[in-house]
Amino acid sequence: MLGTLENKDKSHWKEFVKPLVHAYNCTQNDVTGFSPYELMFGRQPRLPVDLAFGLPASSQPKSHSQYVHDLKGRLEESYRVATENASKTAERNKQRFDKRVVESTLGSGNRVLVRNVRIRGKHKLADKWEADIHIVVKRAGDLPVYTVKPEGKDGPTRTLHRNLLLPCGFLPVAESEQPLKQTVNKPRTRRQSRMEVTDESEVADDNSESEDNDYCYYPPGETLNTDSIETRLDPARDSTF
């Protein structure tokens, strides 16, 4: 009812709550045949339109006991008629609904979604169905109860009612992902740390020795002069020059 307000009145909608509630309580209900006001107070409401047209009040002077007796009788009669009208309306709606009901059975191998029944409280934005797709395994006889299992992965089988299953054959089949191998790092011991330090020092010594060694290249056909090499490598002979 608040949605029927004009755009300029929607910004201060709180001012219209009380008159709208009063209008709703004074309007006859299609199911019960009575207005909520009449079922609560046992009489028709006296509206401003009645005062505008000068309609007289229906009440007449009576004693307190007589007023209580008449009020009790009107309320009992109103409740009885309202209950009968509600039952007739419910039966009529059921017959209209049953005409359009079509049995929906599931076969083995059908892909379905399972309703998310773990939701508690008010979750308007929560998913109504679980993300994993399930496969129907079998049906429990003639009952609308099915046994399902997850699609494409290992998981427990579940026995669920048909109302908790939604066919989803139109959804694409999810590709199975290969699990990544995780390498487990073993804790390092003191012995391994010492061995690594020793290996690094040996490698450093080898590199330093290789840098100290001098290499000479002689073209083919030339003879090697060993005297010059000995003179260059012998520090005692170098001191004589």
From TrEMBL:
Biased composition (Acidic residues): 198-214
Annotated GO MF terms: nucleic acid binding
Annotated transmembrane regions: none
Gene3D superfamilies: Ribonuclease H-like superfamily/Ribonuclease H
Signal peptide residue numbers: none
UniProt cross-references to InterPro entries, sorted A to Z: Retrovirus_Pol_polyprotein, RNaseH_sf
Compositionally biased tracts (Basic and acidic residues): 229-241
Chain intervals for the UniProt region annotation (Disordered): 179-241
Domain of life the protein comes from: Eukaryota
UniProt protein name: Integrase catalytic domain-containing protein
Organism of origin: Larimichthys crocea
